[in-house]
Amino acid sequence: MKTKNILLALSLFGAGMFSSCESILDIEPDSYYIKDKFFKNTDQAEMSVKGIYDVFSNTYTYSHLLSMNYPLDTDISFMKGAKMTSDNRLIAHYGVTPTTSYIEKTWGLLYRGVEYANVAIEGVTTMKEYNEGDEETKTRLRQLEAEAKFLRAFIYFDLVRLWGDVPLKVTATVSSDDYRIARTDRDLVYEQILKDLYEAKTLLGESTNYQNDRVSQGAIRGYIVRALLYRGSYYLASDGQMKRSPKYKEYLKQAAIEAKEMITRGHYDLYDDYQQLFKNLAEFKQDSKENIFEIAFFNASNGKEDSGFVGTWNSPLVKAGKYGRANAYVQVIPDFREEFEGLDQRKEVSVANFTIDAAGEKQTIGKGKPFYPGKWRRDWIAEDAKDPNNTSVNWCMLRYSDVLLMFAEAVNEVRDELPNGVTLHDAFEAINKVRKRAGVVDLPETLNFNEFQEAIRQERKLELCFEGWRKFDLVRWNELGQKLKDTYESMNTKYPSSNSIGNQIGYIAGKNFVNNKHELLPIPQRERSENNLLTQNPGY
Q: Domain check: are 351 and 448 in the same one?
């Protein structure tokens, strides 16, 4: 069942909690009465937690920007069009500024989600039934607390990977001065993220709920691994230098331990058929075998509210007709299609070398033109095209194959001092499970550190392409700028005419990207105008 199907009261809840205000972080303090007057029973408590999810189904979060805009441009995909005439292209092509309105809206919605989570956590934990109710009620309230803490951690993870140091606020607003806080060092933000996640893991207990558009043990454990991996990776520091924590091996050891425990628990597995993963999403089938956590979308008419652009922005181009239409703003560099080995089944699923005409017939794309992501195809979607732009296809945030690859990466990084219970063989077994499903040969366990590192990075590129992680992987490996430059030079060498990809269609990222600046977004200027404690990111 889609989460959106059961969120009928959220708009009332959100409207009652918060009103619009000058600064995004300036939440009207008189709305705090909710904590005392709203949390009277478990139904109200559950409504408060479900309200947090509503933040994710907005155009400026996962309906569009966080899923398909902020992750561009990379060395495998880019946004169509070189003219910097829209916020979408300013963001994708590394022309973003502190006054770009879209980043302000995303920042604001994410902090609104933080406030929702803070209110829910405080409201649930101060209910009389939290300590004095029957066992069933106490268990349910602790599960709701776990869910809210996971979602707060989930939001802060997005904030820190997009902006680096960000204001850390873990209490509900009670005063108009509460939002005027300085940025917190990213390492301390990660400390809070992990604190919330570990507490959520304990509070949720051995819940049998594995509905993947709600928080589960799998989602919590997977995000612990992800947060530890990022905490131990490269990042752009406030002094304008790419750095890595001196404690990075400590974080990666813990990531390996957590991932090994998750793998050993055995709840998740890989589908035999890679294509089935994405057809399930398009057909609205609940999949908790491999997809661990999804952002849910649902609107009966596919109107803008609570719908997404999944299958229109990132689909093969579809002319208006039998299947509706897909504008296909996410485009794929042709050379990437040739990186798949032999009969790798991911090639035909991931990279579509065709368009679809109004009659529903496929037309092969000619040489030297960009391809399209093939994982989210308008013609796969199991509903009539009620709206030309919007769908109710969920966006998957965490798959089991990602956990296996994060595990392999963490283990290789600490192969000279492995934690107890974890072996290098385990890492090869994990990555080869992913490769075996794809239909390619196993990696030999004789690979040295550098060889295995490169193999893991390539496997992430092939397995998870266009799912929103490539750009952030390149940032945390300190490779983004060089990869963009190399791709730009290659594109303009191979396609030098006026009809080239590099010139006409608009792969300009390698020309625009500035090292030690564009690894992060700028802090929105409006926020800095309202809060003089906020500093700006390097280079802006």
A: no
